[in-house]
Queue: 2 jobs
Job 1
Amino acid sequence: MATRSALERSRSALHLRLLAAQRRLVTKQQSAVIVIGGNDRLAASELANQLTEWFDSRTVRICAPTAHAHPKHPFLWPYWQDMPAKGRLTIVVGDWLTRTAVQAAHDELSGDALRVRLKSLRTFEELLAADGTSVVKIWLETSEKTLRKRLREAEDTDAEGWVVSPEDLLLAKHGNLSLCRALRSQGSGKNLPWKVVMGGTETKHRDLSAGLVIAAQMGQVSRRRPAIAVKKPSGRPRGLLESATAHPALDKKGYSQQMAKLQARLGRLSRLAAQKGLSTVVVLEGPDAAGKGGAIRRLCGQLDAAHYQVFPTPAPTPEEKARHYLWRFWNKVPAPGHLAVFDRSWFGRVMVERVEGFAKDAEWARAYAEINDFEARLAETGMVVLKLWINISKEEQLRRFQAREISPHKRHKMTKEDYRNRKKWDDNLRAAEDMIARTDTPHAPWVVVSGDDKRYARVAALKAVCRALSDRLD
Amino acid sequence: MATRSALERSRSALHLRLLAAQRRLVTKQQSAVIVIGGNDRLAASELANQLTEWFDSRTVRICAPTAHAHPKHPFLWPYWQDMPAKGRLTIVVGDWLTRTAVQAAHDELSGDALRVRLKSLRTFEELLAADGTSVVKIWLETSEKTLRKRLREAEDTDAEGWVVSPEDLLLAKHGNLSLCRALRSQGSGKNLPWKVVMGGTETKHRDLSAGLVIAAQMGQVSRRRPAIAVKKPSGRPRGLLESATAHPALDKKGYSQQMAKLQARLGRLSRLAAQKGLSTVVVLEGPDAAGKGGAIRRLCGQLDAAHYQVFPTPAPTPEEKARHYLWRFWNKVPAPGHLAVFDRSWFGRVMVERVEGFAKDAEWARAYAEINDFEARLAETGMVVLKLWINISKEEQLRRFQAREISPHKRHKMTKEDYRNRKKWDDNLRAAEDMIARTDTPHAPWVVVSGDDKRYARVAALKAVCRALSDRLD
């Protein structure tokens, strides 16, 4: 072998360090996200390619959303799709801050909207870090002069090279360099700063510099201590829900008439929503046997099967368990014009996971904010987000359990767990009160439906959904 | 309880039968697809809703692609996405035959294209059945007069009902009734006929009739005996590949120059493909240590990270194992304009699964036709499909294994299995010969690349991909 230069020796040593860091991810079952941003798109792409060459590609995924992909989906949606499972690595090119900077430089994003975006980026990064994901952020910065030269050269290569677009130079302009600096600091989670690496023409040096940062930081997690100590909701239920169970029963005839009318109304609204591209998320929560399934079937009974989807929420699969608990719900965000109905949902984190101790105190305590943020991201795309708590009394639940056991049509709904869960009635009720108090927001409100009379509850659920849709459509 | 009518009693009994049939799916770990087609879209939607009410919704999924969804994806793509895992049930509304009939009635599909489509539907249904999936097909047929009346009524309900479109009546027209009949028979897999149920206004009777068919057929599998006995490829390798390993080595300088030129060329072609929406699938297969990974890194080394995705093919996850082996690859079909590179692929079915006995003889033997059909479905959307076999000699493989073991940069690539697999060299070679002979098609050709010289192999792989793309783009 010929004598290698100092550069080659350093790159070779770095290669080994990166492989070792990647092996540690696997053994420690930790996930990592490497974000490559900056004003030099060509350099970002080259660095991503170099990294996939250095890493063992079997556990690496590239996430590279194009600038205008998925305009109707929440901004963070493409990143959520590709979040790594434990032991794995995602490299992001076309990252959230660079795309935000391009929009800001184009004046497509400013003022409050920009501030909300930057906050959402901070929250997102902190959420990943809090979940134990290692987040490494490289900002490739190239001066306008160098970038211009570099792009021209790339364009020239065999007359078949890069096609320079005006956008390629946008962020390298003098004024935008300081814009980017400001956005980098305002759009970064606590203890998750961008590490600036010079872009430019010395590609091997550049990739070495970036790689050294990655080797040093990958595997480190900047778990942020909450500024205020987690206030654990505690004590006995405050009785907020206990009173809201009964309602004068609806007679069968009045029920049938109202139901037919409401279903036709929701049918019309959902067709209109499909036409206009208005998406809707409806969540149903409530104790076992509250009547969630029955309410959902009435809700969807007259809808066009092409316009809606019902998602049950069983125990998470291994793929789901290996990621942030919100991942599987981000994957089910409805397409434009669609209605997604969740039979139980992300609120499991602050209900069953809290009550059964599946989530640690700090985990479920921070989930309220995470959930509010998730729903805010959906709502800001214009989506209708509505949460229904169907509330029944402990006595009514027992009656229904007993009726289920003797009904051949309903026996399949009973599991061994149902009576066991019932013993934790008070804990569940307290958790529900906390959940509703902490996640009832203007953009994603809770509606509590008295559930002891099934007919009343179904009518009330349908009415609530109709109202939410017609507020937006009429 | 008041006395129930005979109809209600029958429906209640059917409800129990359906729940029992669904439980059997779970205990027997069998999957089922219920297809609801016909000329009465309103009835299909109502029936689907009624079925989700009868079934335990936790293991049911609705697949309802809209008529013009995913125009750039293969026609069968949305159905593949929603195929049920073992123990689960998918209800299809907006099915493959109804959508084909609408296109034929509109004259958007005729002649050869229609024949190819109908053949692809037969093949698809037979593939599901061969895999043990129970396929139940209900065709809801309503006369034009009844349908017109019914749609008018639906339209009138509280002035908020169904909006009748010209399309809603299209298939109910007299001439199209016989068109549908012909398509139903030509587009159905062997022993997988459509069961015609009268649509119309008597919704409770209609759903009862359809439900009875489903209860009777669900869980039955019509595994088709191959007309010709499976001809097992057997015997020793025929030496077709043994000779194609060596090639005069490329010197380092010539290699670097050629590589730079080819990478720039592929970069240009891939940008052009992205612009024009031309998608590409490249598959790399070959013995362990053939240099697939290295070839892929050179292939993608100068591409824009937003334009391509590399998919390794590890052992299937539980979710993947519970479905047809092609499912996980249908899920990775590239979006318009993208390049998907597969590091090993669906050919595992006729390579490792055959050689190791993971697939039964009948399973891998029918896989050649299934794979050809899958690739034909991709190619007919205009996609470039190219398969590269990188071929090395047994001696070269040993040299590389030994080099890997002492190289700290490559040690991670070695697994315990590698030497074990090497013992089956002849079996693997024979399987590769059969695979190439049986799946080399005009729309998805194999290119055999001599791999003993790595530089030559990388250049040849890049050239082959460039050629395939430029044939379509230039």
Job 2
Amino acid sequence: MEIINGERLVLGTCYYPEHWDESLWRDDLRRMLENGIEVIRIAEFAWSKIERYEGVFNYDFFDRFLDVAADMGMKVIFCTPTATPPAWLTEKYPEVLNANMDGVLYRHGGRRHYNYNSPKYQELTRIIVEKSASHYAKHPAIIGWQIDNELNCEKNEFYSESDTIAFRKFLMEKYGSIDALNEAWGTNFWNQTYNSFEEVYVPRTTLSNNTNPHEVLDYTRFVSDSACRFAKMQSDIIRKYIKPGDFITTNGLFGNLDNQRMTNESLDFITYDSYPNFAYCLDAYNKDNFLKDRMWSRNLSEVRAVSKNFGIMEQQSGANGWNTGMAAPTPKPGQMTLWTMQSVAHGADYVSYFRWRTCTYGTEIYWHGILDYSGRDNRRLAEVKSVHEKFQKLSEIAGSKYEAKVGFLKDYDNAWDSQLDVWHEKVEWKSQLGIFEAAQRTHTPMDYIYLRDDVTAEDLKPYSVLFYPHPVLISEERKVVLEEYVKNGGCLVLGCRSGYKDMYGRCVMDKLPGKFAEMSGVDIPEYTLVSPDNKDIVIDWDGTKLEAAVFNDQLVAVGEHAEVLGRYENCYYAGEPGLIKNTYGEGTVYYFGAAFSEKTAEVFLEKLGVKDPHNAKLEIPETCELAVRKKDDTEYCFVLNYKDAEAEIHVKEEMTDLYTGEKVSGTVVLKPFEVRVLK
Amino acid sequence: MEIINGERLVLGTCYYPEHWDESLWRDDLRRMLENGIEVIRIAEFAWSKIERYEGVFNYDFFDRFLDVAADMGMKVIFCTPTATPPAWLTEKYPEVLNANMDGVLYRHGGRRHYNYNSPKYQELTRIIVEKSASHYAKHPAIIGWQIDNELNCEKNEFYSESDTIAFRKFLMEKYGSIDALNEAWGTNFWNQTYNSFEEVYVPRTTLSNNTNPHEVLDYTRFVSDSACRFAKMQSDIIRKYIKPGDFITTNGLFGNLDNQRMTNESLDFITYDSYPNFAYCLDAYNKDNFLKDRMWSRNLSEVRAVSKNFGIMEQQSGANGWNTGMAAPTPKPGQMTLWTMQSVAHGADYVSYFRWRTCTYGTEIYWHGILDYSGRDNRRLAEVKSVHEKFQKLSEIAGSKYEAKVGFLKDYDNAWDSQLDVWHEKVEWKSQLGIFEAAQRTHTPMDYIYLRDDVTAEDLKPYSVLFYPHPVLISEERKVVLEEYVKNGGCLVLGCRSGYKDMYGRCVMDKLPGKFAEMSGVDIPEYTLVSPDNKDIVIDWDGTKLEAAVFNDQLVAVGEHAEVLGRYENCYYAGEPGLIKNTYGEGTVYYFGAAFSEKTAEVFLEKLGVKDPHNAKLEIPETCELAVRKKDDTEYCFVLNYKDAEAEIHVKEEMTDLYTGEKVSGTVVLKPFEVRVLK
Amino acid sequence: MEIINGERLVLGTCYYPEHWDESLWRDDLRRMLENGIEVIRIAEFAWSKIERYEGVFNYDFFDRFLDVAADMGMKVIFCTPTATPPAWLTEKYPEVLNANMDGVLYRHGGRRHYNYNSPKYQELTRIIVEKSASHYAKHPAIIGWQIDNELNCEKNEFYSESDTIAFRKFLMEKYGSIDALNEAWGTNFWNQTYNSFEEVYVPRTTLSNNTNPHEVLDYTRFVSDSACRFAKMQSDIIRKYIKPGDFITTNGLFGNLDNQRMTNESLDFITYDSYPNFAYCLDAYNKDNFLKDRMWSRNLSEVRAVSKNFGIMEQQSGANGWNTGMAAPTPKPGQMTLWTMQSVAHGADYVSYFRWRTCTYGTEIYWHGILDYSGRDNRRLAEVKSVHEKFQKLSEIAGSKYEAKVGFLKDYDNAWDSQLDVWHEKVEWKSQLGIFEAAQRTHTPMDYIYLRDDVTAEDLKPYSVLFYPHPVLISEERKVVLEEYVKNGGCLVLGCRSGYKDMYGRCVMDKLPGKFAEMSGVDIPEYTLVSPDNKDIVIDWDGTKLEAAVFNDQLVAVGEHAEVLGRYENCYYAGEPGLIKNTYGEGTVYYFGAAFSEKTAEVFLEKLGVKDPHNAKLEIPETCELAVRKKDDTEYCFVLNYKDAEAEIHVKEEMTDLYTGEKVSGTVVLKPFEVRVLK
């Protein structure tokens, strides 16, 4: 493949040849190449450019453009246009539209207003993809394909009639009989019992917005399934036509979608759209958020959970904003480079800026590209060129992998249950943010690992410590993998509320923590949300005071290997155990009876001996991120300064600066937004 | 009757025998009985358990369950299942559904998604109630019936087509002719004149959400009428079948419903669902609300206004919460007992905990019962047992009545008008809270009395002082009752805005305070809302500064018996009278030109000599509530400590502690959440 | 004409003879006349009074009323009743109703629930207007007509099917072909291309609420066009029948409506509805807003932009409030007079109080008139009488014009674009408020001037300085007018973001500030919203620190006449030019790279020598407004004290107090809310 091939870092951009203007095209492509951009993505919303009238296909426009690109030496990623059905299509076939829960259709004019399950839309999609792929795939300028654009962006809930029909089919396949569904969804409650699948719908408007939670969980799985099937339908067609070595991808990472499954089924690799400047949107800015744009390292870690090496299809290159919202300032000098290197540090080997020129019309007139409206050279283009020069120097890191000894276990079942269940959500979000921020502040590289069906204890072995803060839903299979990981010497850290639901999201009629009882050596006779009239519930762990946030399980140690490490210090359960360590096989399980705040998570990192593993080499202030990519035995240390102020780091062992090739040691000062890559 | 019979206090619980598991049933019933629970409520959402397919009735499940109950010696309250129509029903007959104002139907899956006026739903309701009552009513385990569940909960507005048709009928009966309706509703305004009843609808979507206020008032009366008719339809059927001594009730106290009428027409007594832990919901917690869970004493006083003795069908026994909201902590040790005794103190002779086990599926997985998911014995079950033991000791208070010398007059016309009229609402809510909180803080027992058509001056006589803070709407009949009460020596306290509307909610084209002019000796040439650029408007009453909150009537004393007691101290009406006392017959009327804040209300209690009437016996801190039940000449004093801290009371005359049978006097320390019952 | 005739100031009121009660009518009219009210407006919602059943017309009611009015000597403004279609009409023809974007119809019962484009409503409107005008126009009591009531109030967006059909017609006329529309709207973006006008709709529900911004701009123009056509349809009919000298007007000034066009096409003059007490609504009160009710001077300046002399059809005379909201206190003694004089000071020669009696039913029971519900004499009626006496003294100012040397340029294209574009909105609102407040505080009279097609450089010449803070959209024609104004010696002050869009709202693919480049001598290589992590960006202008609010253009001076006056002091563009002065012909253009805060605007007023032009005569505290009306050479200075406190002014040259006829000089103390008119 031309990109993500382990050979070098590549720069690209998103290009919109909207009008037939060859001299403009040539001029643009020439300027891109001069500034180090060698790949462009095109055509992701261009359905009408190819099929302006139903069944009438015209390839002239992109034929010509691709010839120009080939002539100039520009490589092209070509897109299927299914994210934006044309006006003629939605006007003639309104059944393809998505709707809100009340049944109001989302109309033409925005993006992604279609539903995945409309037979008519699937038919029209198959036609346009088949026509496009069969016509263009052999063109020498093309190096790969993007399916659709940002699947599940804009809205990841679907309420059309086609969705109800497809949902019934999904449920029939899952449950076989309506009584099995009744049992799984607990329809005894509030007399929800169904007599046939015909009585089941996607969630509809109900009083107090109370759709059965087990239904909503299955519905979310169904939405993900629908998106995956839609992507695969396109991928299967494109595969028939593409040249050897050309790739298929799609971009973005959105909710209610199992990105691993989609990638496995349909893509060669995944790409992400990274806009850290969202942190500076005027209406969303949170001055108390310590991480701000550095939060995007979390998103990049999510992408890395899908694939260790990946691409950035859209990397921020200007101010963001729609005419209707999301207004943000222009990136300051250095920020574009910082955010590009943030992507690379986490595993991106391809970075494509969104977009070359800023659009002068439509909703996205403020979603700036590299160039402003006039198209003249500017500061940001100069920054692109300097990134290109840096990429040349960093070439050897292509194909290296982000290196972490701490893992954070996740799974879609818990993620989606926490969306529909406010008790689950409260603990989940506290710990998600707490553990991530603690790892960031302490320069402890951390991976996310999704506990999928194909994950084995062997896959988990590289991690000295695994946080799985709130595995509320747990299956027998996953439990067995975790037990094996621990038995073989692993260290698993669990938080409150573990194991109280089955995979349908029903509570277990059992002692808690359910399936975790044995490995954790814990029994939970009582529990409570932290009352709003109490605050700062504290657990004492050998003299260290841990905040016991959000929820408190009152624990009892069970079995000879279970040891009470910490006890609550206040409220009516003062003196009760709140932290238990269980030796299980060769390993250990820690059960902490609350959610993990950032301070609490930092104590765990420290006490478990995994905090700041590179501090023998590098001493870095907490305002800088440390990310390490490794290939063979070489470690590439990225130090990223997110602040608009200088930062001082200490290089304790002599290292090589990849930008300059020079040796560095001792105190090094990073300029505002500066990044250093040291090996 | 087995409960509310003046003989003893009885404990119950709500039970959900969802699966046919006789050994579980027997085990549960045995454990209940061992812990003092002798009544269970069942089947309130169980329509599909009896009629899973339309017209196919199967009684096996509850036949067997009732036999088991009878065998174990458990008494049963059986419910009609109409709160939750089955899926087959709403799928086949969508006309039974309620809708929002825009016409979007509320679909299957929640609760109470039906409308009262659908002829089809009424027909199907009659069938299921007839079938259930005729089949089960003779069963020896059954002691009474609950109609539906929480009428008007979830939503107390109805916008289906059936509602419009029924509303027209209601209006035709009320007005006779469309011109009478036009006159009553002032349809001259904004050209709203109707030519026929066919042009009238339940409130529909209008610009700026402005439905004619007189229509909304009648609509609210119509909603209440609809609910009452629906309850009576069921009650009339059940009455035909029940055993002698068995009762009919329903539960809860919700908006837009004349609970007195419903009780008189259809019930033997009313029961309430008491969840004081709502005060500790995470999203609703108000740390500045002094009363918190003690606010539920207000709700209990509302129940008592319907019936001096009543039951609690659902009493909080665990944390509350739906998966979609209302998350609250687990009740602390002692709170369950405290809230139970709060119910008893206000007149409950039957208390049934919601629920035995916590449901493991559906929306209410966090609405905890006595037992958690596992069903094992726990702290809260132990607390139930101790309540049972206390109930044994309190047996003699059954049938005694809450005793108050201060009354607070209410009526539904004003309550409902204050919902639709923000000026009315502002004064109403200020005074509702102010007077209640003043009574609570000063340990002044107070009753609510609804000024219904059957209330006479004689009924009011027991009250030394009656507050009727803002009788905006007043009828000639009610005026006469009040005049008679005062003439006979009563003391009536009125606040601002009295009497400026007629019973249609139209303002009177008359001097204010309209019908109250004569009895109050007041004329009101000017009035104003307290301007947001003024604050703390004060009236001086013999040197005491009264806050004149929200609204200011500028008064003039009329007649020889009217005396100016207080004058405004600031704003452009400084010096104008704000408080007038009128001697009227043997009694007095106080007209206060503003709303009653808590401090203001306390001054009235004090100056009118009704504050803290039991202070010769008991001296209690303001953090404790005092409630007194009386039978014959015995006064039972409940002292309830709502705080998670000790409280010190002083027993000035020797009294007997009913729990221990011991004499107590002098200083007594109440533990956190502790209750003492002294006689 | 009887009013707005340059001869005298006239008082009126709005009257609602709702019931046939001649003695009440006579009594009311007599009392009005006794208190100086000589004109009444009637019948604006009275459709059913004339056509209660479709096609059945009955003129008796107003025939009789007009005879009584004539008999009493009262002059009448008669209204067309189209603001409130009758129930029979909307029931029979629901297609006349307006709808929300989701298609939900706005139903009978409020106001203005119709749409302008329904052929059926237009037909029924033509009939009722023709019938009314042909029957009543000759009546001697009538002096003029009001069309409808408050066009575009309640809601100024229309989503009915008739609107879509009319919108297509509007677009066909504007663009001729669908491809011209595609080009103008940039439908290339997000594949929005249309193949025919049949595919185009008024804005519909879209995901993320993103309708094409160029479409929304045209849609807003279409709404304005629809309202103007609707008014003209009525005006054309009425003109056929009215007596010589009788006038046609309408009332209010609402959004999405080109009031100048409507006035030019259909009216003799415009009238406004002035309710400054909105500033004291309980829910909207902003104690930090310095101007409060004085903000209504801004609205009055907008009216004056339509016509130098105008009327007030509804002037606040009591508390405002609907039963559903907008609750406000009663005007304090003096405020009614203050607000009346505020209207007069800005150009009103006719002032009509809303309303005589307060309505006792319907939504507006709290929208108080002069009299309260009882109708008896009161303080506010006495204030009307005193206003009448003052009007006698002020008679000579009738026909005089508000006098200002500072102008504020506006146009509807920019106003409407700023509604749909949050970046535009942010700068627009900052500067709108900043410049207005600066002018008010510094007693610098200021006019609004709408840069319409018929405005010439000559029209602008009287203004020494013109602010045109953010002309984002600019046409070639307007540019030429501005250039000519400057060349001839004018001074034009521009702010950031000038000229970056064309008249379709598309960004120009050109250097910024686009069409302003030449006259301003400015180039803008970079720009940014002020980042939320920076604050207080400052430009230094000869030692004066200017706040550079909201947005920062980084400027470069171009050409020999351009001079850098100010530079940014902070952020990454510290040192870059932020203020450039260009000499252009005989005049100058100032380009300021940010929005104008109040402090910044004050500096401009000062540095450009136009601040406080009357300070040689009068020295006034900033809490008082100064407004000057001029006739021939006489200047009438209105000094208005908006505070509930005394204010001290200094009369430096001897002047005459028009109320008293006395000479005044030196220190004069104004009582709370007092107004002085000095010449």
